[in-house]
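Colleagues,

For the teaching module next term, I've prepared a clean inverse folding example: a structure given as tokens, and then the sequence designed for it. I'd like students to try predicting residues themselves before seeing the answer, so please don't circulate the second half yet.
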């Protein structure tokens, strides 16, 4: 997950997602959930949008600790500012994944709210998503909705 090569990080996230979907919660390593949360918290690329996607599944399965959720919220808070279109730097290497990051962040915020979490960052993402000029972000749906 910490690889600097997207394909390696992508496969690692896919493996975590598959593992989480096929194991009982008590048998899933908490260190994997914490690693996903840390990647979101520090906004590490490549693979940030995949980490956010995996976090939605981990949340749904009850595999995120309170500390993981706090770390995720820290990352989502920073992403609100860092992915703002008005301040986006042309030529930024993350441009190709900007829409994916924003759409998945919105999905995660909605999933956190659905799971009963309340936080200003969650509210801010949902509001930003409702007004996002990119339809893929604005209409980002949880695949389980």
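(Answer key — instructors only)
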């Amino acid at each position: 997950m910490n690889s600097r090569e997207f394909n390696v990080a992508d496969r690692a996230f896919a493996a975590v997602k598959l593992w989480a979907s096929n194991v009982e919660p008590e048998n899933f390593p908490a260190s994997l959930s914490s690693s996903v949360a840390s990647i979101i918290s520090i906004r590490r690329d490549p693979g940030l949008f995949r980490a956010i996607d995996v976090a939605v599944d981990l949340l749904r399965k009850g595999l995120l600790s309170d500390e993981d959720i706090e770390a995720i919220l820290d990352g989502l808070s920073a992403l609100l500012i860092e992915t703002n279109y008005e301040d986006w730097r042309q030529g930024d290497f993350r441009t190709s994944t900007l829409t994916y990051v924003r759409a998945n962040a919105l999905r995660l915020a909605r999933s956190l709210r659905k799971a009963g979490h309340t936080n200003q960052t969650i509210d801010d993402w949902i509001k930003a998503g409702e007004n996002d000029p990119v339809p893929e972000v604005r209409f980002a749906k949880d695949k389980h909705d």
